[in-house]
Batch of 4 targets.
Target 1
Amino acid sequence: MLDVEPGTWAVILGASSGFGGATALELARRGYNIFGIHFDRKATQCNADRIQEEIRALSREAEFFNLNAADDEKRDFVMLRITARTGQGQWGSKVRVLFHSLAFGSMGNLVTESADQTLLDRKKIEMTLDVMGNSLVYWTHGLVQRKLMGRGGRIFAMTSAGTSRVWTGYGAVSAAKCLLESHIRNIAVELAPFGLTANAIEAGVTDTPALHHVPGYEAMLSRAKETHPSGRVTTPEDVALTVAALSRPETQWMTGNVIRVDGGERLTS
């Protein structure tokens, strides 16, 4: 039994791997068609192609865009394509879910130089804040103002425990995640009268391509597994199943939260 009526779409930012890829596939299993936005070079494009093929094998539609999601002109181009595929019109249109999982940011120290860490400059810090934080606002604004997303819609953004912890080289990303959570709270209040919800998802330590860019990620994975009450770390599929469940009508009264999906990791780490 499908969760949604035929012709319903989800927009996945960061759709080619990790949380975005897993969520795209899980929502497709529940009946969603998928607009996927990703930024891959030739070496990793094959993963985006594989996910599209798996979505279509489920008899769902998939349209993926390999571009910079923080670029205004490219975002407008995607919005035009979404309009063409779904039809612009009344509130409560065919886009039900926006899932933000963009993980393109710079790692490095904020104020001190060291032998093993790059010192971040203004350009890198502001790029990280824009891609991993502010882009949520621009994509939400685009979908809502064009009436492509309306009552019953669900907005999700991936945050991390780095909002309250210090990890080497993670300063700019930590700031972006704090910014993202602030945006979620304000979006939730602004869109409540229109019947849309917005929540942040904080996953436990998860072995994704993005994690491999964090200095010392091997130790993070090892420590999380050793102390986790379930004896394993979080997977992208754990998050995807949660997003699918929270996208159902019964969760309409849940909005403006940071929801932990970590199997109790925070309780023992």
Target 2
Amino acid sequence: MRAIKGLVWFCFLAIGVSSCFQPPEFGIAPSISFNRIEFKVTPDISDADSLILYLDFKDGNGDMGLNDSFRDDPYHERNFYFEDVANSKVTPVGTVLQSVNKPPLPSPMPMIITPPTGKLVTKRTRNKPGFGFLPAFNAANLECRDYTTAHLLIAPSAAGAIDASYNITDTLQDTGGNKYFVVKDTIYFERNLNHYNIIVRFYQSTGGPFTEFSWEDELCTTFNGRFPVLTDKNGPLEGTIRYAMPSFGFTPLFSIKTLRLDVIVKDRAFNKDSIRTPDFTLQQIRVN
């Protein structure tokens, strides 16, 4: 069973100022309201069905949307962590994307530039006193959650986060002779929710209380996503976001269940608003 991340289409009205028109006053935090939800079934079994969510929105300064260029901290995809031995906790750290011109190394590569509070957290950290709260390594979850073996670049400013016990696969130098370390270890991570500007949580019921269905836990995917920058101008903005969530799993998972969604929409300053959809079944909202 395979799920596909959400796709987004949108229409909007950017409201300008003229001598005969006074633009409306919206707050700087986005305001969203439920418009409707549809379930579209494709006739070709090789294509995914789609759950399509329509949200009306208003925003006072127009800072809505994230393009693909928004990949550096604080919009990075994954949080990594430094050890805080004194307090037996871990401290999140973001990344920036760094171009690397050395095949077969990936380019770009996430790079940590933040000066460390302690060593970079790996699966070995769990064996240290005070860090037993970290999740145990499970190969079935590798890359989906908890741990990754993807390449990570450590900038000179963060070099204290690693030592000879880490699997350092390469060392790079810039034109100034500064050293950058390529690490490919079993590194602890969590998804950074600030990477997304629309967050969707699914709840299901078969007649009793609603319980959350976690796409990440069940299928190693997410319907959290992004809609692109809606305008390059400051000022009031309103319109409708059409957010399509394609998946082959909707009918087999939810055909006899009642669903509801919790949805959060954020602007680039992380101001946010949320709604809960009315309860629905797939049959009730089917449009074909």
Target 3
Amino acid sequence: MNVLHIDSGILGEHSVSRRLTAAIVAQIKADQSDVKVTYRDLVSERLQHLTGAQIMAPADLNEVDPALASDIRTGRQMLDEFLAADTIVVGAPMYNFSIPSQLKAWIDRLAVAGKTFRYTEAGPEGLAKGKKVIVASTRGGHYSAGPASAMDHQESYLRTVFGFFGITDVEFVRAEGLNLGADQKQFAIAEAEKTIAEGNVLRLAS
């Protein structure tokens, strides 16, 4: 099984989302013997945000600026990694009610007509069917229920965009209320790690 491990938290060793994605991948590897993991750190690799020059670039990259050509090749490689993966583990902290810009930049490289989706007479069709996505979702407050749920443009966006690619099997492991005190933070992390350890997420990656 091919696993694609994506991190986008900007806090390095202090990042809870990175801690949870590492735990998820470790459990998958412990549960299955034939796992191949491809890892991408979207913060340290500094993927450029989508530009018009990238979209308008000719097929022959020898005709464009070397820096732009390198950036396009990196984006194509990331798309190939995504298409080759059976399970995608994504670390997605909530920043200002949405996802990190680094994660959005990665998603923009995946949204390619003819690769992950196509338009038909019946409407858009996702072309990445059959994959599983496990998202480690971390939030400073509580957004999964209650009045603040209307401000959640993190999980709702990820479910929508992966669904647009044809992926309907999207699971979230949440650690919420991380900024509401040390006790709440430790409780939230412990509950998320318990969910992972009990295999409630791994069953989706089998």
Target 4
Amino acid sequence: MIIAPSLLAADFTRLGQEAKRAERAGADWLHLDIMDGQFVPNISFGPAVVAAVRPHAKKLFFDVHLMCGQPEILLEPFARAGADEIIVHVELGEKVPPLLWKIRSLGKKVGLAINPPTAISAVQPYLGKIDLLLVMTVNPGFGGQEFIHECLPKIQQADAWRRENRLTYRLEVDGGINNQTAAECAHAGADTFVAGTALFQKRNLGAAIRKMRKIVGNHDPGLADLKI
């Protein structure tokens, strides 16, 4: 099970220190939401910020989620900035195959995300080509939203395909993730949990991470040893 605090919920006046706090608290990954104001109605941060944060959390795996309409122009800058994995959206349609190829060619892990309104069948052609599938459990753009329970069947289907085809992609969830919803997602088959306000807003981040890890571990779908 992977616990990935989302930097979007951190204190923006001290992002380097917040990343270090996550590393010291026992986080496995740091999730970085990149928004362009067009693909989603918000703007977050770019490659320069990621590059500035990277030295403060050298041991953390940087999980970079591009919610952008033109991710092709951002792949190399984020790879240079320190991304370990780059996630693009299936909603980009015909752009998806070359984007996945380009991420792989840069030596990075390949992620694919799907938004709540999109049918899970859209990701099926790509499952053998990715390292991670991100099922968004809110409509992306803003932190602090309420979990959309109707997304749980998507997680179940993605997990079923993974098992049926003996694939090894991680199954990540992001949006409204707290201890209760993380447990529901773990029961459905998720193994990687992005949480923003439920973690960074806690004074004792280490205790919050340990509690979430224990809770999702109790709902382990049998893939706790899956690694990428």
